[in-house]
Design a protein that fits this description.
Layout: E1 5-8, E2 11-14, H1 18-27, E3 35-38, H2 42-50, H3 52-59, E4 63-64, H4 69-77, H5 88-99, E5 105-110, H6 115-126, E6 131-136, H7 145-155, E7 159-163, H8 168-175, E8 184-187, H9 191-195, H10 204-208, H11 212-219, H12 224-227, H13 229-253
Helix pairs in contact: 1-5, 2-3, 2-13
Amino acid sequence: MIMDKVNILGVNVDMVNISEAADKIVSFFEEDRLHSVYTPNSEIIMMAYRDAEFAELLNRADLLTADGIGVVYASKILRKPISERAAGYDIAIKVLEKLKDTEHKLFLLGGKPGIAEEAKRKLEEKYPGIRIVGTHNGYFKPEEESEIIDEINNSGADIVFVCLGAPAQEKWIDRNRDKLKAKVAMGIGGSLDVFAGKVERAPDFWCNMGLEWLYRLIKEPWRIGRMMALPKFGVTVLLKGRRYRENLNSQIKK
């Protein structure tokens, strides 16, 4: 699958939908190296806009999808529309559906102590036959990192769901890409909390209307400060997005 990209403020987002992203991730199992998968929303892209090093890290990904309706709207403003929001959680669900009928193994990393274990239990109930071969919480010290890498490698995991929050999870994956023996490491934020039943995801109506951000704000009003990144992102795309799009087009022509 050859994927087209849209450059949104310096971040080259793959123009794939949820099903295409899941299919691509499964295809990575056929290659003998680690593949990094990130799912940036508008807040993360704004982080990258302000931090060139982080932008370069994101652009090293093997798959970069649009997790956030703001990113989808930005692609339309730039006249390279992404067909749908491909959130990390939704892609992970599709991947889980595919994994349950295979011998491929999954490792869960992240969350508070006990969350990954509870997520494992509930996922095994929901997807009979799925092979979740290990878990580890996300509250570890830097000096413990090598032990965690060994734990993942010894488990024989083919794919690791890394749920440390952005930008920590992306930096963790990139830093350890030459140490991990898995075929895929996928950063999916707070998804473990949802898998474990500790956090309720927005109902389908809100997601389909592109208003999951509003639902979360109503449920968690302390997010108001973070949500201010959304209008800043929109204005920045309108004012400067075209320049980045033209840079990507010139790179493709070369």
